[in-house]
Amino acid sequence: MRRQEKKHEGISTILTFMLIPLSGFAMDIYIPSFPDMVTALGTSISSVRLTLTVYLIFYGLGQLLLGSLVDSYGRYRLSMLALVLFILSNILLINSSNIYFIIGMRAIQGLVISIIMVSKRSFLVDVYDGDKLKNYTSLLSIVWSSAPILAPFLGGFLQNYVGWKGNFYFLAIYALIMFLLEYRFTGETLKEQKPYRISGTVNAFKVMLSTKDFSMGIVLLGFSYAMAIVFGMSAPFMIEHDFNFSPVMTGNMSLLSGLFLLFGGLLSKAMLAKSMLKKLRLATIGQATLACLMFATAFWYYSLFSLMFFALLMHFLMGFMYNIYFTYCLTRFPQYAGAAGGLTSGGAYIVTSFASYSLVSLLNVGDQQTLAICYFILSLCIGLTFLVIGNNLKRADSQ
């Protein structure tokens, strides 16, 4: 088996940080192309939205079910195989005009990207320790969060000058370059392969899911992130159809949305010492209030400014809340750190995918008022979740 060479650890670390954003790029880069895909493929809006939902579902399932494979079969071989499959899926997708085939390729992409993400996170744990590991781990989350911010911004330009297929050309070329660099400079970092025992993973999941504040917290995270996905599924049609702007404007507005989400996360980090329950309650009340104002305002004023004003504030509070509870879930079971990370992230993505797709389909979201209704329903669901786990959070605050 090819091992990681010590002299290449530095460049391999850089390549890790270059690969981590791939999950976000694969998820969000083609959002400005949604209207064009509906026309070019001769399909429905709901079918195009389903390509994103399916990716999220299989990305979540992959982290849940396949994450532990990298401890048994190694990081290097699985991530390289996943890159090859990702490249091929993009090539096949580009050359297809069948929406159902495209949906199938997006399912494969969700699975293989999950393997790449787990492998690259594990690389840092294998190679580094102590303060250096903490530094790289904190940097990892910042790099990961940059992709959903930059991806639609880039996608808007690709759509404007190349068309919807330009997004998937970009993904294929980026993955090919990364494959060649990985082949040249990286190798296996797993020191000792462990036999794959599904029973151990199942037992860990049972313990965590039977703990109310953890299991309901995954649901809470899913509802929270669904706000961003509902916006991503709906905004291109409002911006490009209702307001007659180009896909570049869709990308610019998605960039702003991502930045406000990031700012909310940074604020939550700065307020780490404050009561978690109070912070979450205030954020939830704030979201519900903003959703009501967003709905009422649309009766007398509906513009890109009003739409984005409320959406940006909603996403700011979403980033604030998500960062608080995501950190709580990751540290809730230190004895199952790896499994807790996979279950939290994977489970939340699955909840997000079902909640977002159900809302945009049932409400046929296409203007400020229906988007406000989605935001209100999700904030109400989050509030009800707090009622279930409030006592647990009080105990966490007192410790």
Automatic annotation (TrEMBL):
Annotated TM spans: 12-32, 52-69, 76-93, 99-118, 139-162, 168-185, 218-239, 245-268, 280-301, 307-325, 337-357, 369-389
Domain Major facilitator superfamily (MFS) profile: 12-393
Keyword list, A-Z: Membrane, Transmembrane, Transmembrane helix, Transport
InterPro entries: MFS, MFS_dom, MFS_trans_sf
Pfam families: MFS_1
Ranges in coiled-coil conformation: none
Subcellular location: Membrane
Protein's recorded name: MFS transporter
Keyword presence, Nucleus: no
Topology in membrane: Multi-pass membrane protein
